[in-house]
Write a structure and sequence with these properties.
385 residues, alpha/beta, Aspartate Aminotransferase, domain 1, Aspartate Aminotransferase, domain 2, 7-stranded mixed beta sheet, 40% helix, globular, binds pyridoxal-5'-phosphate
């Protein structure tokens, strides 16, 4: 009998996938289901990227690349930080990865020692805690409610840091709440971690999809942060498996040797294709699509509130709304089942994202076109009276 590593027991299945599977089964029976569970843009890769992919494959650019990614892409990403976020970064600090997932795995393998604790908010993107576990560490989820915008604060660091804590992972804007950490609060948090010689990983996968104020990258807070980003969300390339890390200069050799051994490189054709993302006309399309997401949020948010699905913190980014369902039910998992079976609306119960208050929340994704969101609202109105 083959034995699994005991750490596998600490990795929970993704409950959202169960709901999605049930929705697919209902659809196979002919039911019309409005999908509001999926964490991926309904838009797909832009034509310029698809054409660049075709060109790259025709030209045989399909072989292994440098482990840290092709130089033109690392330069283009550095240019993007300069022009979009007003922050300079040496391209040599950028490591191209297989999505933000690959970036988080590389970062945790490099930074998390066996038994080390890593602090993160509850609710959090589920893979974060499992990636820490897979690296041999111990994720420590800290309840973060509406008063904290569902994010970690400097105070959390002061109260929960132990001799075993190695660092912190935050995502801003966050999945599942769509809320970001205010710049001054993030600066204070980083300072607390820095004082303790810990690492701060800031997942900025949704930074491009920020709807309020200036988009500011945490990169500006210092050269010692680990920044995660991806082509999946703002650039609409989920299945292409491409993302990046920005790491402190002195850590580049360690990350490079890990990347060489663990993955060799990120997809070569995807890297060549992604260069087209940074053309001015491509960036215009991404901004137009971002505006479409903002419109959907501005439609859906008041409608959910009207239905008694209260949203305690206005999401300022990503494509998620985290609704408090307590006016209607006490358990979001069974409420999600009711929504699916009675209204034909598929949303994700909080349960995947932690354990603190997650039974009270449901995550709605608005990565679905406006007409479908209107249909979902009409159906939920009917169900909830
Ligand atoms: C906060 C966050 N980080 C990372 C990821 C992983 O993204 P990818 O590996 O597609 O870049 C996701 C995906 O939903 C996410 O929501």
């Amino acid at each position: 009998m083959l034995r699994l590593s005991p750490r596998i027991a600490h990795i929970a299945p993704f409950y959202a996938m169960e709901v999605v599977k049930q929705a697919a089964a209902l659809q196979a029976e002919g039911r019309d289901i409005v999908q509001m569970s999926i964490g991926e843009p309904d838009f797909t890769a832009i034509p310029a990227v698809v054409e660049a992919l075709q060109r790259a494959t025709r030209e045989g650019k399909t072989q292994y690349t440098e482990a840290v990614g092709i130089a033109p892409l690392r330069e283009a990403i550095a240019g993007f930080y300069r022009t979009r976020f007003g922050v300079g970064v040496d391209p040599s600090r950028i490591i191209v990865t297989a999505g933000a997932s690959g970036a988080l795995m590389l970062a945790c393998t490099a930074l998390v020692d066996v038994g080390a604790q890593v602090l993160m908010p509850d609710p959090t993107y589920p893979a974060n805690r499992h990636i820490v576990t897979a690296a041999g560490g111990e994720p420590v989820l800290i309840p973060a409610g509406p008063e904290d915008r569902f994010q970690l604060s400097a105070d959390h660091i002061r109260r929960h840091w132990t001799a075993r804590t190695a660092g912190v992972i935050v995502a801003s804007p966050s999945n599942p709440t769509g809320t970001s950490i205010a710049p001054h609060a993030l600066a204070e948090l980083v300072e607390e971690v820095r004082r303790r010689d810990g690492f701060t990983i800031v997942d900025e996968i949704y930074l491009g999809l920020s709807y309020e104020g200036d988009r500011r990258s945490a990169l500006a807070l210092g050269d010692d942060l680990i920044i995660v980003n991806s082509f999946s969300k703002y650039f609409h390339m989920t299945g292409w498996r491409l993302g990046w890390l920005v790491v402190p200069q002195q850590l580049v050799p360690a990350f490079e040797k890990l990347a060489q051994n663990l993955v060799i490189c990120a997809s070569a054709p995807a890297q060549h294709a992604a260069l087209a993302c940074f053309l001015p006309e491509s960036l215009d399309i991404f901004e137009t699509r971002k505006e479409a997401f903002r419109q959907r949020r501005d439609y859906l948010l008041p409608e959910l509130e009207r239905l008694g699905l209260c949203v305690p913190v206005k999401p300022d980014g990503a494509f998620y709304i985290y609704s408090d369902i307590r006016a209607h039910a006490s358990d979001s998992a069974s409420f999600a089942q009711r929504l699916l079976h009675e209204a034909g609306v598929c949303a994700v119960p909080g349960l995947d994202f932690g354990s603190a208050e997650t039974a009270a929340y449901l995550r709605f994704s608005y990565a679905t076109d406006l007409a479908r969101l209107q249909e979902a609202v009409a159906r939920m109105s009917k169900m909830l009276g």
